[in-house]
Write a structure and sequence with these properties.
The protein is an alpha/beta fold. Helix content is about 60%, strand content about 10%. The strands form 2 sheets. It has a 5-stranded parallel sheet with strand order 4-5-6-3-7, with helices on both faces. Strands 1-2 form a two-stranded antiparallel sheet.
Length: about 325
């Protein structure tokens, strides 16, 4: 999921366009206020006049000129805020407004690091240019259908039909997405191939991506490939370092098909590290796997299974292979 130079430039063009949009909107607000509150223009002109005057005094050796300018500007700003609020406007109505206040729509924070909004833009661009965008158009809450689930036979493990059970599962997933901002949380989907695990994770992913949350969707194989390259390659690409950090920091990490990768002590330790770090940071994770809870413990150690069982909502899926019915 690294960015090419052209992709980076595409994102930066969007930031530049946003900066111009911010300036145009500010100019429009200023002209609106000048029309409705003529005294405001006089106050702005007074700010400019005082700045020029005090600059001349400072150049002539008057060291107190700067302090006087600060006091005068503070007083004029108070007058402007009073006028705006008296007419029903916010005190900052004439100031520049930013899509992302943290970087002021520059993509970089004051300390020179990429802003969280840049990372989010990166994820959205990569999704838009991958096959996943097309997948999410097909697999989402709006296209979810119960017709592929049997409603004629009671499943002993759940005491009801699979179709009725899936209505409850749908509600759980919908609630997870709808209340994500206030609750977050973690999910584990279990069940054999073709029971709808990936479809349900896609439903949640699309809902959160559409609301501008940072979502990373990786197969277990690709997840451990990132960890391996970050850990063992001496000259790790900058974007690979970013990707490693995204995995730990993104709003929602989806790990699909856990258990299909080549498992060893490295994957077990990295899975524990990833899960544990995200839990400590209060970040949400969804895992789908064909493994039962007992197999999960056997494959990835008690530590991993304990973290998942203690902190994840476990949703087992039942029924026949849906793909054979489509």
């Amino acid at each position: 999921m690294a960015l090419s130079n052209s992709q980076y430039q595409e994102i930066m063009r969007d930031y530049q366009a946003q900066q111009l949009k911010n300036k145009h909107r500010q100019d429009d607000r200023i002209q609106e206020i000048y029309g409705k509150i003529p005294a405001m223009k006089e106050l702005d002109q007074a700010v400019s006049t005082r700045a020029v005057l005090r600059a001349k005094e400072l150049l002539n050796g008057d060291q107190a000129a700067l302090d006087r300018l600060r006091e005068e500007i503070a007083d004029l700003r108070e007058q402007k805020a009073f006028l705006l609020e008296s007419k029903g406007y916010p005190a900052d109505y004439m100031e520049m407004h930013y899509r992302c206040p943290d970087c002021r729509d520059t993509a970089y924070t004051p300390d020179g690091n990429k802003c969280h909004c840049f990372r989010q833009a990166q994820i959205r661009l990569l999704y838009a240019q991958s096959n996943l965008e097309a997948v999410l158009r097909r697999e989402n809450f709006q296209t979810f259908s119960y017709q592929y689930f049997d409603d004629s036979r009671v499943e002993p493990a759940i005491g009801t039909t699979v179709a009725r059970y899936m209505k409850q599962v749908y509600k759980w997933c919908r609630d997870f997405a709808d209340r994500f901002d206030e609750k977050g949380g973690n999910l584990l989907f279990t069940g054999t191939t073709g029971r709808g695990k990936t479809f349900l994770t896609n439903c949640i992913a699309k809902e959160l991506i559409d609301r501008y949350h940072s979502v990373i969707y990786l197969s277990a194989h690709d997840l451990f490939e990132v960890f391996s390259r970050y850990r063992f390659e001496y000259q790790t690409e900058e974007e690979m370092k970013d990707m490693y950090q995204f995995i730990l920091d993104c709003d929602l990490l989806i790990i699909d098909d856990l258990g299909t990768e080549l498992n060893n002590s490295f994957t077990s330790s990295q899975l524990f590290f990833c899960i544990n770090q995200r839990l400590l940071a209060g970040k949400s994770t969804i895992i789908s796997t064909n493994l039962s809870l007992d197999r999960l413990r056997d494959e990835y150690t008690d530590r991993v299974a304990s973290r998942i069982m203690s902190n994840y909502t476990i949703i087992p899926l039942y029924g026949e292979d849906i793909r054979l019915k489509i």
